[in-house]
Amino acid sequence: EVQLLESGGGLVQPGGSLRLSCAASGFNFRTYAMSWVRQAPGKGLEWVSGIIGSGGSTNLADSVKGRFTISRDNSKNTLFLQMNSLRVEDTAVYYCAKGGIGVADNFDYWGQGTLVTVSS
Amino acid sequence: IQMTQSPSSVSASVGEKVIITCRASLDVSTWLGWYQQKPGKAPKLLIYSASSLQSGVPSRFSGSGSGTHFTLAISSLQPEDSAVYYCQQANGFPLTFGGGTKVEVK
Fold first, then answer.
1. Residue A30 in 3-state DSSP?
2. Interface check A53 vs B, CB under 8 A
3. Which of A4, A21, A101, B82 could be stapled to B105 by a disulfide with Cβ–Cβ 3.0 to 4.6 Å?
4. Is B90:A57 a contact under the CB 8 Å cutoff?
5. d(CA A5, CA A25)
């Protein structure tokens, strides 16, 4: 059974940093691209960042470029999102999502999400 | 690539057919998926590659289209289909979602 379990969310002041983690199980983690998708309160879905299976290529939404970094540790089946210079508008539930074998794909499994609140 | 969904909301009775439209600002071929999201839950993939039914999804859900125009159809609406539905293009980065369509079951 595929499972994705996010952690690391919480309350942080504007300008602060957080590191999200996503522990994956039930599939060959290193084979699949992974992404972070967020959802602000009462709003729609926004793709944030993606990384291919090997970790050799990453992509970021313009809204987080220069502030967020995605990475993965295939030896520990874990995906990360380092978030720096956080802004109030980064407040959202952050989901970890499993992609396909290709670089870009739809997401067939999602975690339960972790809430990030940026507020003073 | 911008994804535009219509309508933004729809209300229909049990057993009725519901159609949701998604338009892409550029050609995305068939790199299009549909998701269902219920309150407080993560999205669930219903359709991938524009028309392929994800495993375990009821056959009353179907997808069609290619290029810039796509549709999601629910052939016989059930009470448990009350949710928000999103389309998502996977043709290129940044990956983008439509704004969502709220489906209410009367």
1. helix
2. no
3. B82
4. no
5. 9
Per-residue pLDDT at B77: 97
Residues in chain B: 106
Query: Which residue among B48, B92, B100 places its CB closest to the CB of A106?
Result: B48
Beta-carbon contacts below 8 Å between A and B:
57
Tell me the two tokens of residue A21.
């983690």
Mean pLDDT of chain B: 97
Chain A window 2-31: which residues touch B at a Cβ cutoff of 8 Å? Answer: none
Which stretches within chain A are classed as H helix? Answer: none
pLDDT 10s digits, B46-60: 999 999 999 999 999
**What pLDDT digit, counting tens, does each position of B6-16 carry?**
999 999 999 99
Q: Which residue type does A88 have? A: V
Instruction: State the average pLDDT over residues B71-88.
Output: 98
Residue with tokens 């952690």: A7
Residue B90, amino acid: A
